[in-house]
Design goal:
heterodimer; A: alpha/beta; 6 helices; about 20% helix; globular; B: alpha/beta; four-stranded antiparallel sheet; about 20% strand
Chain lengths: ~260, ~300
């Protein structure tokens, strides 16, 4: 029987203003698929769903990188090495592994970068075709994990809204260029909803799969309460139907989602 | 210690703890986390004759000791429930309560008639009190004549036990409850969520996609306890109490206020196993406060019992 369980925090790293990465010692969590999440107990009424930033099944380690957005994440930000977290997980549908011979494009925006890193770390050795990574954030301060990407031997294209690091602007020009070069490429993306909507629009209608990792306010985390829904295909007479981020996602195929729902 | 509860029309619970509708899916979802065989019962998520798509997200918002939700009773409809969830429910030994919803009296009748043929369903809970539905649902819960008509329509198509779930968002919930009892309800369940609102400061608009939502969790326990007490003081039928229960002590409060059994909901999101902990703790808590069974605690705080 599955259950919520306690895991120790073995390291706490400040990674950007109001962003922290907590390294957890847990064999079970370390065996997650990239894109899956962990539902963490906080003093409030709901757990907080946080996707894995890195997974090391050999050493039994899993990372959670989060941004402070409210009371629950503020409490998590204050956690220290040596303390425990009460977690459920790993939960949800993660990324499907990339195909070996297909070019692979990874797109990460802001606090959506961590699951993209986890995917690259898990699967870069199985892909023999070219791999391209573009990361975007408001400013240089918020371009998290960029050195982790570099330490894996990739050289991500960096973009910032204010031009304080890398190219000024967003992730789309790089994506557009690579899709022109590799029309059959597989795309994985995680980031703010407008970014995902733009990725879906830019990358649709090709042979390559588009996998988008979503975020939503969540209740139970296991598919029972139907709180964390997003508009999805197929469209009915009343509009899109609603699907659960916790169990139908958090990773969806691009064509499954409806971003322009009223 | 005896924890079992006998309710009207032969409804037997092995203990007074049931999962509250809307917090436990249709049965299978929590099976990996909770040994459902240990529960007194499960009230499944509201079921309508046809699929309902629910309200736009965001659908939940945390408040002080409470949870606002605006799910809007999304469900796949009765045929999908029968085909996909009854096979699982057939494998577990607990009372199954079908929470039913409709936009019209006829829709309540349709879903009750169809589900009444399913032997696995032990009882109905008529939901006339969800604050998140614009049409139907709540309108029946604020008008005694409509509550009577809906209850009567369901009574006409089933011999199974019926409980009617009443709203706290009306001045006199017992008026609705009394109408439901007159129409043939065997029990009253109380309370549904309290209608509320939260603001998203960044978005400059109400936080929930449905604008308003239903408040649950420990924040509403005093309101729930008061209404259960008022209902149990006035009614001749059993009351099923709920609202913010998260411990065996909370359960005893509801029993003393006149509840014959209880439902546990919001706390399950934080602690999926909490209902089982409550069941484990209940004998010790009953004993601590001088009770020898669940039944012996029911209603001891009611005015008629205090005078006796």
């Amino acid at each position: 029987m599955a259950h919520a369980f306690e895991v120790p925090i073995i390291e706490r790293r400040d990674v950007a203003p109001a962003h922290v990465e907590l390294m957890l010692k847990s064999v079970r969590l370390s065996q997650a698929q990239p894109g899956q999440f962990c539902h963490v107990l906080t003093p409030g009424m709901l757990r907080r769903p946080i996707s894995f930033s890195r997974l090391d099944p050999k050493r039994g380690l899993a990372g959670l990188l989060l941004q402070v957005v409210g009371s629950g994440t503020a409490w998590l930000y204050e956690r220290k090495a040596g303390q425990n977290l009460d977690v459920m997980g790993p939960l949800g549908r993660g990324f499907s592994p990339p195909e070996a011979h297909r070019p692979w494009i990874l797109v990460g925006g802001g606090v959506g970068i961590p699951p993209i890193f986890a995917a690259l770390e898990a699967w870069q050795n199985r892909v023999t075709a070219p791999i391209h990574v573009v990361l975007g954030a408001r400013t240089a301060d918020y371009l998290i994990m960029r050195r982790d990407f570099q330490s894996l031997g990739t050289n991500p294209v960096l973009t910032t809204d204010d031009g304080s690091l890398g190219q000024r602007g967003n992730v789309l020009p790089a994506l557009d260029q690579w899709l022109g070069q590799f029309p059959g490429a597989e795309v994985m993306a995680c980031g703010p909803t407008p970014m995902l909507a733009a990725v879906q629009k830019t990358a649709r209608g090709r042979a390559g799969r588009v996998q988008l990792a979503l975020e939503q306010r969540m209740g139970c985390g296991i598919g029972a309460c139907l709180a964390c829904v997003v508009p999805a295909e197929p469209l009915g007479p009343e509009g899109p139907r609603y699907r659960r981020v916790c169990t139908d996602g958090p990773v969806f195929l691009g064509e499954e989602l409806v971003f322009d729902a009223p | 210690m005896r924890l079992d509860v006998t309710l009207p029309r032969g409804l037997q619970l092995k203990n007074p703890i049931m999962a509250a509708s809307g917090t436990f899916g249709f049965g299978p979802e929590y099976a990996a986390y909770v040994d459902i065989n240990q529960l007194g019962g499960v009230s499944v998520k509201g079921i309508s004759p046809d699929p309902w798509r629910g309200n736009p997200p965001p659908r939940v918002w945390e408040t002080a000791e409470g949870l606002l939700n605006s799910i809007g009773l999304q469900n796949p409809g009765m045929e999908v429930f029968l085909a996909e969830d009854i096979p699982f429910l057939n494998t577990v030994d607990t009372a199954v309560v079908a929470n039913i919803i409709g936009h019209t009296t006829d829709e309540y009748r349709r879903v009750a008639e169809r589900l009444s043929k399913e032997p696995r369903i032990d009882a109905f809970e008529i939901n006339i009190s969800c604050p998140n539905i614009k049409e139907g649902g709540i309108q029946f819960g604020h008008d005694p004549d409509q509550a009577f008509r809906v209850t009567r329509a369901v009574r006409e198509v089933t011999e199974k036990p019926i409980m009617v779930k009443v709203s706290p968002n009306t001045g006199e919930p017992w008026v609705i409850a009394e109408a439901a009892v007159q129409a043939g309800a065997d029990m009253i369940s109380a309370i549904n969520t309290l209608v509320g609102m939260a603001m998203d400061l960044n978005a400059r608009r109400p936080a929930l996609g449905g604008v308003t939502g239903g408040l649950s969790g420990p924040a509403i326990k005093p309101v729930a306890l008061r209404i259960v007490y008022e209902l149990a003081s006035r009614l001749s039928v059993p009351v099923i109490g709920m609202g913010g229960i998260s411990s065996a002590e909370d359960v005893l409060e509801f029993l003393m206020a006149g509840a014959s059994a209880v439902m546990v909901g919001t706390v399950t999101f934080q602690h999926p196993e909490r209902m089982l902990t409550i069941i484990d703790d209940l004998p010790r808590v009953l004993e601590t406060y001088g009770f020898s069974s669940v039944e012996s605690a029911v209603g001891v705080a009611l005015p008629q019992r205090r005078e006796a």
